[in-house]
Amino acid sequence: MFKTLKRAVLLGGAAAGGAAVFYLTADTDTQMAIASATGPLLRMLDPELSHVIAIQATARGLMPRDPRPDPPSLATKVFGLSFPNPIGLAAGFDKNAEAVAGLMGLGFGFVEVGSITPRPQPGNPSPRVFRIPELKATINRYGFNNLGADAAQDHLAAFEKAAAADPSIKRGPLGVNLGKNKSSKDATQDYCIGLTRLGQHADYIVINVSSPNTPGLRALQGRKELEALVKQVKGTRDRMLWGPSGPPPLLIKVAPDLSEPDKRDIATVALGCGVDGLVVSNTTIQRPGEVAKYPAATEAGGLSGAPLFPMSTQVLSDLYRLTGGRLPIVGVGGVGSGEDAYKKIRAGASLVQLYTAFAYEGPALIPAIKRDLAACLARDGFKSVEEAVGADHPDIARPKGQAGGGRGAAGGRKSWWW
After folding, report:
1. What is the per-residue pLDDT across 87-104, written as a single tens digit (0 to 9) for each?
2. At what angle are helices 338-347 and 365-379 packed, to 10 degrees?
3. Most CB within 10 Å of its CB: which of 21, 45, 179, 403?
4. Which has more confidence, 321 or 213?
5. Mean pLDDT of all residues in the chain?
6. Is residue 281 annotated as a catalytic residue, yes or no?
7. Rounded to a whole number, what is the distance in angstroms from the first to the last CA of the chain?
């Protein structure tokens, strides 16, 4: 029996070694497909555990790296920053900035980490993530669970050191998304602390006032509250010492659950206070369409994924109109294909982020979206992403150079790891 067991172990090791050699020597698309095919195994696990495993695998270099150049039509400049492509990873995936290098290597044009709070906090009790695979949707009530600003600062410093040694690691800009601690009585102070500790590591900063999972947070989207918050955070930023490139652009992330007066107030504050851009949108507390018939719909939390696309895109379009196309917008919510990304861009997005679709489809989705987006642009005669921004608003003349500006200047399938 011992000989039989030993032979089985040796054969298993040889098979694993052979599989590893095949993976490492395969072309990029094959590696992406293999990585994405791990979905059935991860689906056997709790959604949050799957998330943790995905982060750790990416942080340890176990995900494929896509070194191929992007189609020239996808290169764009926003906030004075150069993006190799407009497809980014939204905040919420890498909450602690642990896997930035691996995520950049997958081919994203930019990566946003967070939300990060000044102090560590565990978030809401588990279970707090629920799949609706039939609709490519999820509901989560994480509640800004993260290791805090000090840990994130250490991780970002380590990433910068690695990128300095190998410039190819940092493919595109890095955004840092800031939140407030649940127990904090002074939200403004929390955002200022986050900016002070992490701003030097960020190409842009996002003030997240739109998560539905922190009590009272969305109240900060009111005109009076938002204006006071933005003025103080922006003032803190402008008083800090920065390098030759200046301070990082400051963006506000808003919810999709906004009334018309809410949208007007946000547009007024953003323009009046010199915000550099908007991120539209976060998850929704609504349960639109077919979502309501699934058991997970009764769970509290924010809905993300395909069902969010119509709502978030409409809010994006409305805010583009209300700001007269004068502020770059990052479009988020339900993006799962190149056509989806293109619709966001035509509605007014200069950049596009995804999250839930990445969880369902895996790494192979990223090159597919980029290929399809390039095809959409060519199909409609656009030579670049910038030419297509706001194309659904022919009555709005975009100010020349809106996508540029100085850094910090005013202006149905099964899941992969969920």
Report:
1. 999 999 999 999 999 999
2. 50
3. 179
4. 321
5. 89
6. no
7. 40
Sort residue 334 into left (φ over 0), alpha (ψ -120 to 50) or beta.
Answer: left
Cα gap 140→213, rounded to integer Å: 8
Dihedrals phi, psi of 339, to nearest 5 degrees: -65, -40
Cα separation, 109 vs 351, whole angstroms = 9
Q: Which of 231, 253, 230 is nearest to 114 (CA)?
A: 253
The pLDDT, as a whole number, for residue 2 is 40
- DSSP string across 262-284: HHHHHHHHHHHTT--EEEE---B
Which residues are within 8 A (CB) of 367 and not within 5 positions of it... i.e. 6 or more apart? 28, 29, 32, 66, 68, 107
DSSP letter for 354, please. Answer: E
Which residue spans within 313-401 are E strands per DSSP?
329-332, 351-354
Name the token pair of 122: 């565990």
What are the structure tokens assigned to 33, written together? 């497909």
175's tokens:
């955004």
* Three-state secondary structure readout of 303-345: EEEHHHHHHHHHHHHHHHHHCCCCCCEEEECCCCCHHHHHHHH
pTM score: 0.90
| Token pair listed for 199 | 């701003």
Tell me the domains of the chain and their CATH numbers. 37-388 (3.20.20.70)
pLDDT at 283 over 90: yes
Q: Which of 36, 184, 210, 211 is catalytic?
A: 211
- Each residue's pLDDT tens digit, 131-147: 999 999 999 999 999 99
The widest CA-to-CA distance across the chain, in whole angstroms, is: 80
Position 10 pLDDT exceeds 70: no
Q: Render the burial of 181-212: b for 16+ CB within 10 Å, e for the rest.
A: bbebeebbbbbbbbbebbbbbbbbbbbbbbbb
User: Pick from 211, 184, 187, 186: which is nearest to 95 by CA?
Assistant: 211
Residues found in the chain: 418
Two tokens, residue 262: 């809410």
| 344 Cβ neighbours under 8 A, 6+ residues apart | 313, 316, 331, 335, 352
